[in-house]
Specification:
Elements lengths: L1 H49 L1 H6 L3 H34 L1 H12 L7 H39 L1
Helix pairs in contact: 1-3, 1-4, 1-5, 4-5
């Protein structure tokens, strides 16, 4: 009776792990893109400061301000997308134990469930899945952060 339910919970856990890899890979790409935009904006501002005399003489101030604003807009759009996805994933990962427990008990045979066992099993599943999902996500996130760092160094 509990065999298929336990199998279902581990299948859900494996799917969540795959989702973690996919989402963190996408978040790392957004983070790298945001770093590139920031570097480009800082370089443009630095060049503007170095050549302020030429910019003033040639009346190119508006052109440089427009370029800086375009880069900043791209930077903020990328960062906004990053934050939204990060928050959605965090909510999912923090509540994964409850979500998986609910799915497990929705699939279980109601006639065999006893109230005391249900609550203790929900607590155990919630605790087990929350910590395993959260810590695996922290590890995966750290790996992709190192990857972004290495890309920037290269």
């Amino acid at each position: 009776m509990y065999g298929p339910v336990v199998l279902l919970s581990y299948v859900l856990m494996a799917l969540l792990l795959a989702l973690q890899f996919g989402s963190n890979k996408y978040l790392a790409a957004l983070q790298y893109k945001n770093c590139q935009n920031t570097d480009q904006r800082i370089a443009l501002i630095s060049n503007s400061i170095k050549g302020i005399k030429q910019i003033k003489v040639r009346l190119q101030e508006d052109e440089y301000v427009q370029k800086i604003n375009e880069i900043r807009t791209r930077e903020m759009n990328t960062y906004g997308k990053y934050v939204n996805i990060k928050q959605l994933c965090s909510a999912l990962y923090f509540n994964s134990g409850v979500i998986i427990s609910a799915i497990v008990f929705m699939c279980a045979d109601p006639s065999t469930l006893e109230l005391g066992k249900v609550f203790s099993t929900i607590a155990l599943l919630g605790y087990m899945f929350n910590f395993s999902v959260l810590f695996s996500n922290f590890a995966i996130e750290a790996l992709y952060t190192i990857k972004v760092f290495n890309q920037r160094v290269d």
